[in-house]
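Researcher: Go.
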Amino acid sequence: MSATDAGFIRGFASRQCAHCRLPLPSRPHRESRGAETLLFCCVGCVLVFRIIGDAGEGGRADWFLAKLGLAALLSGNIMMFQSLAYLGTLDALGPEVIRTSSWIMLVCSLAVFALLGVPMLRIAIKGLFRGRLTLETLVGLGAFAAIGFSATQTLRGGRYLYYDSGTMVLVFVTLGQYLDAESRRRALALLVPTMSGTRRRARLFRNGAELDVPPSSVSRDEIVHVRAGEEIPVDGTVEAGSADISEPLLTGEWRPRGIVPGDVVNAGSTAVDGALQIRASGVAETLADRVERFAFEARDRRAPIEAVVDRVIAIFIPAVALIAAGSCCWWGLSGDWERGFQAALAVLVVACPCALGIATPMATTIALSIAIGRGCLVRSGAVLETLSRVRVIAFDKTGTLTVGQPEVVDYFASPGTSAGIAGLRLAAGVEQMVSHPFARAIVAAVRARGERVPAATEVRVTAGAGVQGWVEGHRVDVGKLSWLGACGIDLPATSAVDRASSTVAIAIDGRLDGELVLDDPRRPEAVETLRTLSRMGVVSHLLSGDRRDVVARVADGIGLIDYAGELSPMEKPLRVSALRASGRVVAMVGDGVNDAPALGAADVGIAFGPAADLAKESADVVILREDLLEIPRLLGLARRTLHIVRQNLAWAFLYNAVAVIIAAYGMLRPIMAAAAMVLSSVCVVHNSMRLSRAELNGSKKRETRQ
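Model: Structure:
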C-alpha cells in the first residue's frame, strides 16, 4: 500500500471500525467508497453500513439497535424455555424435551454471544495484552462463564443451565450502549446541517459559462453568485448585493444579520431575502469546516477527570473479581456450589461499571453540543473542565470590551466656522477614498445625519498622517493636527479637546475648521457581563496595548478596577503568567493577532467574535457571536457540567458497591443483577440530560426577555 493510498483509508490510523468504532481485527474488512477505503471490524458492520450509510454517531446508535433487536429476539426464546425449566414444566414433558430445549438454548446463546459478546471479549483481551482492564472485561468474562458453564451442562446432560443470565447480561449492556450512542446522536444533531457534505455547490462564471462546482475548487478572488434562499458555499466578502443572512449554525444567533458590500460572510450561512455576489477568500477550511472539526475533536479528547475514572476502574475490577471468587468459594464450601456460582456470576454482572464509564463523556458531550448551539466552540472536555475552575479573566480592550469600530462622538469647531456640519460633510468627501477606520467613521457620521457625501478630486493620502483633496471647489485637509501644521495651516495655541481622546483635525481652504473626537464605544453588554462574572466569583482584568489614559477611561466606564495599558504583544502573556502565579485558573479573552501569545499563556484562551485566524488557532474556545454575555454563560455551563459529572460518578460508584455486596450474599439472581446494572446506567443518562433541559429553559427565558 502506497503512502498516497494510506491517506484515503479511514480507520487505518486510529485502528477503529469506520462504523461502530470498535477496535479493528488484524485483518479488517474493507469497503471502497470512491477514492476512500473504509475499514470495518466485521461483516455485520459492512452490511449495516451499506444500508444506513456513513451516519457517524447515528450509525453507531442504529447498529447497536439492530444488534439489540436480533439479540433480544433470540434471548426471548431462551427466556421462554428457561422459565419453563424454572417452573418444572419441562420435567413433566420428559427427558427428550429437556434435552431438545437445552440444545435450542445453546444454539441461540452462541448466536447472541457471537453478536454481542465477541466484540466485548475482543476489547477485553486487547486491553489485557496492554495491561489495562476495561468495562468490557467483566461483561465478557461474566457472559462467557455463564454460557460456557451451561454449554458444558448441555453436553453432559446436566440441568444447571444459566443461558438466560449470560445472554440477558449482554442484551442489557448493549441496551446501555445504545442509550449512550442515541444520547450522543441527539446531542450532536446540531452539527448535521453544517457538515461539508450537505452544503450547496458554488455557482460562478468561467469563460462566460455558468458552472456549479464544489466549494473546494473555488479559487481566491473568484466571484460566487448566491440567490435568495440559497446557502452560501464559501467564506468571502460581499462584492455586490445586499441581504439578510441567517447564520444560527455558526453563531447561535437566530436573528438574521443585514449585510452590504464589503461585509464578510461565511459558508454555512443562508441568504434569506436577497441575491449576493461574493468574492471568495480562498481559505481551504471554511468557518463551517472549523465548527465541524472543533466539535469532533472536542468529542474525542478526554477530560482529566476521565483519567481518574480509569484509575478507579483499574482497581475496582480486580477487587470485584476477588469478591466474586470469594463468594463462590464461601457458598461452595458451605455445601451449595450452585448458589455460589450464581452469586459469583451476579457479582460480575452487577459490578459492570458501565455507569462509571459513561458518567463523564455523556455529560461533556451534551455540554459541548449545547455550547456549539450557542456559537461557542470548545476544543475538548478537558477545556470544559478547566473553564469550570476559572476564577480570573483577563480581557483585551479593542474589539472585545469595545466594539472595535470607532465612531464620531463630538466636534469642536474653530471660532467663526459653520459649527462643523459643513466641514464634516466636506471631510467625508475626501475620506470616502480612504480605507482607514477613522475615515470610515467620518463617512458613516455624515450618512447618519441623512447628508449626501460629496465627490472629491485630486485626493492624495499621506500614510499615517492624513489626506487632502478638492471637494465642491474647496481644498480639504483631514488628519493629525501636527500634520496640518506641517502643511502650513495656522493652529491655535490651545485646544479645547482632551488630548487623551482620539482626534482628527479638519482644515478648509487652509484654515482650521475644527477637530473631530472619535471613540471606540464599549459593547452595550460589557457592564452586565462584568457584574455577572463578579457574582460568580470571577475577578476581571483589562490588558490593552492602547494608551494608558484611554484604557483608564474605558475601565472606569465599565467598572473595572484592575487594568493595564501600553502593553506590547510580548508583555501581555507575561501579565497573564503573573496572574496564574497566584495559583488561580486564568482565562484570557481577545480578538486579534496580537492576542495570540496571551491566549496561549492562559489556562484557557478565548477568541471572541470576529477574531483573527491566528487568535482562533491559539485559543481553546472560540465564541463566534458578538455577545460578551456568552462568557459567563459558558462558565456557568462548565460548572453545571462538572457538578453533574461528580454526581454521576458518586452515584455510579456507591450504587455498584452496594449492589456487589448484595450479590455476594446470594440475594440477587444473575438476570436481576443485569437489570440492576442497566438501571444505574439509565440513571446516569437521565441525570446528564438535565443539562439539555436546563439549556432549553434558559433559552426560553432569554427569548422572552428579548
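Model: The longest strand covers residues 511-519.
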